[in-house]
Amino acid sequence: MTSATSDDERDPELPGRILTTERDALVPLLRARPDADFTLPAAACPGWTVRDVLAHCSAALMRVVESRYEKDVFSPESNDRDIAERAEWPNQQVVDELERGMTEAGPVIAGAGGVLDVIALGEWVHAGDVLEALGEPGAYEGPGLPDALALLVRLTRERDHVPLHADLDDVDEPLRLGGVPGGRPPARYIGDAATLVRLYAGRSAAGVSYELAGAKEEELNIFG
Predict the structure, then answer these.
(1) Does the global pTM surpass 0.85?
(2) 84-91 LR contacts (CB < 8 Å, sep 24+)
(3) Strand 187-191 to 164-168 pairing
(4) Angle 218-220-221 (CA atoms, 0-180°, nearest 5)?
(5) Exposure class string for 172-192: b at 16+ Cβ within 10 A, else e
(6) For residue range 26-41, what is the model confidence (pLDDT) as tens digits?
(7) Inter-residue contact 82 to 88 (CB < 8 Å)
(8) Which residues lie across from 211 on neighbouring strands?
(9) pLDDT value, residue 70
């Protein structure tokens, strides 16, 4: 069984742990993959290939490392430019940059006071997108899941998101996500943790068995 903290207090090292844990799992897998696999479509990110997702992730992390924030940074247009700038790079150069970003971004995020924490969660979700596109097991789960859930809990509370009580099949304690219940009672989720992550990340949970009452799937998306 997996445990996940629901403490509201920010752990400044947590985003960096998410990144380095995923780095250690994802980068060796990518280095062993043939170039053809980088052209596979990433269904979770319509219009993007595996390589596009990785280029987006590596660019976003290096912006954090180098404190490069243009006016429209992280917008769809900015993301497309970042991907285009890496279009002629060998695949392994993209992986090299991703590895560096996952290594060096953590301390910068830790010192930013929380404003950049969501980037670590987004990168972790994108790693799941890549695993799913490659047909690998462990998408949206794995060793980084407890920290990812803890960050998800805190972010949804800070944003006064839809209140939700989650009874997870693979986590020892239930999680309370979102803001303080007001005019509506908390929604209720029963299912596994990976599917809960999919819902909060706006990813498809088609074909997966879970129960959600008191809220619509689209209300949970924190990235959309």
Answers:
(1) yes
(2) 85/59, 86/55, 86/58, 86/59, 89/55, 91/35, 91/38, 91/51
(3) parallel
(4) 70
(5) eeebbbbeeeeeeebbebbbb
(6) 999 999 999 999 999 9
(7) no
(8) 190
(9) 84
